[in-house]
Amino acid sequence: MTPGSGIIESSMSDSPRAELIKLETDRRLGHEWDEWDGSPLPRNGDFDSPPKLFFLWSAAATAVGLAILFGVLWLLRPHLASIHPLLVTGTTVAVATLAVLAWTWWALLGASYLLKRPLLPARLAERGLYLRLMSWTSRVASRFGRRDWVENASVKVYNALALIRARKVNTGELLLLVPRCLSRDALDGVLAVAKRYAVPVFVATRGQLARRVIKERRPRAVVAVACERDMVSGLHDVAGKVPVLGLVLKLPSGPCKDTVLDLVQLEDWVKAYVA
After folding, report:
1. Which of 17, 35, 253, 256 sits CB 3.0–4.6 Å from 30 for a disulfide?
2. What is the pTM of this model?
């Protein structure tokens, strides 16, 4: 293929080979970091956080969301009463029921994580409602300057829930998604893992290209690598369609430049999927 339209190439000549897929584009990577002013990141770009941080912030985010809902209901009470008195009662009961269901679901989610058992179907957990909770919690945490730490914790919880399913695929059915901002050593390490398991690797500059390659190649599972911000938005877009495990990066040189990853964890997750 000609440069610029897309490249599918072999990165190593020995068998098995690591298939490196590249799609070139003139659009930027890392739009989630547009506000970064170039100053050093906390802890040299390592936002490692315990999973319990997500449960604390998600509980707060759920409370905030329900408070907003009840607030809107309170403001609408006069208007609803003017239409029909029963509307106030019915709407209040509906919102209260929703609140009970939300907290019950949150508790079951926490129990699934602690017990390492799938107490909820995937669509009500890591491939559905959890993705919405993760995004909403991230928005709330960003208001307090804790976005990256909370997102790191949320990705860990997501991965734990996904691993509970113990899904298996063939090597040709797994896809590795990595960003172009990896350091040379990190990319070489990724390619070495891909070579050992004959797994194709996709390098993209934007999230829409990741969605495109998933649509075109139709993998049965994905191991994705990204910073916390891109990971949360990417999981929200993709995880509902195909099982994903997400490995977050460390950013010692700031976002989108010479990022590094845990290669041991990457290989463990490739092995977790490959039959």
Report:
1. 256
2. 0.85
Q: How many helices (H) and strands (E) does the chain have?
A: 8, 6
Beta strand 244-248 with 7-10 is unpaired
Q: What is the pLDDT of residue 184?
A: 92
Cβ partners under 8 Å of residue 165, min gap 6: 118, 122, 243
Range 7-26+39-45+167-273: architecture per CATH: 3-Layer(aba) Sandwich (3.40)
Tell me the average pLDDT across 23-46: 64
Decide if 113 contacts 33 (C-beta within 8 A).
no
Structure token digits, residue 258 = 């010479």
Confidence of residue 85 (pLDDT cuts 50, 70, 90): confident
Q: Quick one: tokens of 31? A: 């739009």
Domain boundaries, the chain: 7-26+39-45+167-273, 52-157
202 and 176 Cβ atoms separated by less than 8 Å: yes
DSSP-assigned letter for residue 188: H
Closest CA to 209 of 18, 75, 26, 12: 26
Alpha helices in 34-183 (DSSP H): 52-83, 85-115, 129-142, 147-164
**Other Cβ atoms within 10 Å of 56 Cβ, number:** 13
Mean pLDDT of the 44-65 span: 96
pLDDT at residue 237 in the model: 87
Which two structure tokens, joined as six digits, stand for 195?
């070579």
Residue 228 to residue 148: CA distance in whole angstroms: 6
Measure the CA–CA gap between 57 and 12, rounded to whole angstroms.
Answer: 44
Q: How confident is the model at residue 33 (pLDDT cuts 50, 70, 90)?
A: low
